[in-house]
Amino acid sequence: MRRETGLERYTSESPQDATRAAAFGGVTTIVDFVMPTPRPFELDGRTVDGKTATTLELAERRRTHFRDHAHVDYTLHCIVSGERVGEAIAELGELVSDGIASVKVFTVNEPWRVRTGDLWDLFRAVARRGGMMAVHAEDHDLVEHMRARLADEGRDEAPNMPLVHSKLSEELAFRHVLRLAERAEVAVYMLHVSAIEGLTAIAESRSRDLPVYGETLHNYMEFNCGHYSLPEGTAAHTYPSLKYEADRLALVGAMLDGVLSTTATDHIATSRAVKLSGGTVTTVCGGHNGIETRLPVTFTRLVQERGMSLERFAEVSATNAARILGLYPRKGAIQVGSDADLVVWDPEKRVTITVDGLHGDADYSIWDGFECRGYPVTTILRGKVIVDDGALLGAPTDGAWVPQHVARDVLTHTAL
Predict the structure, then answer these.
(1) What is the CATH topology of the domain spanning 2-412?
(2) What are phi and psi for residue 102, nearest 5 degrees?
(3) 271, exposed or middle or buried, with CB in 10 Å at 0-12, 13-18, 19+?
């Protein structure tokens, strides 16, 4: 995966490194992205022009990156940029038949942004095909206006990030997207919820039994935007942005009371040098090196400290994501016919997270020094023990492709 940062360009860790970290963190299936690329690439012995590649070719390209290089199972969101909406709609039937039923869009940042008319067409097409829309929603005009304004005023330092990727931006974009989705009769998964305003919009839709689901990240539940002013505080940044203490507390509450459905990571693991390379609201590096820490941090904060039930922890950690993304009941369930993906959890085990103790390919962690109360001790993938008592027993050939087929009830009303 690639992102613009204070450095010219960078690439995050390999599938093998990321999935090894996932296995140690008790994660048995990851969801990566099919992304457009301008570069030529090799596929089935031929060279494909990235600029003219079909969405199916891009999907197969990404699958080849994981094939024989994944410690855990994998599936994909298909990212549709504003430049490729028409092509994606034309290929949507084949894409869903191929097992990619989750379509991700951005409402912010060119050339990724999908404009309202294209969003409307895409929503209706995904609804007809039985897919799930995954939406990163921010108000593009407001974000760009505030970015330019702060630069003109000489106030574009990183701590002012929440003035650009703001609470108002989240409110405007969420309500816009959710109203379009309602009219298009499409199910939506709202990504990276970071503010009270986003929570309120989701809660209102869910109160009317609409198929609307939301996630937040464990760093959003741990840090507020004051963290940006600390030394190396931008390491905790991912987009949209950290917000205020009231928002952080509201996100925790929404995870406990059911307004939000899942915890996630937006996992992008880079070097410390890359992560800290940008100091302005435009150049700060996004992404969160959190795939291994998500479950133990969430367990500590929500189960041990806030009394979340073990059943609810299993839902927000596994079952709900499997249902939303069409992996259930193969994934996210313990029952006859499911994959026998199991995690043995020691609720009494105390582990202090250190950079050296993690298993991905990054030389920093925003969780360095965090004391976990409860930790995964054994990870089992389709009946095979791949991690046990701190030892990697699996291989990078263990992971397999998992196709998505979203259940009808998840697509038609508030099913979870």
Answers:
(1) TIM Barrel (3.20.20)
(2) -105, 120
(3) middle
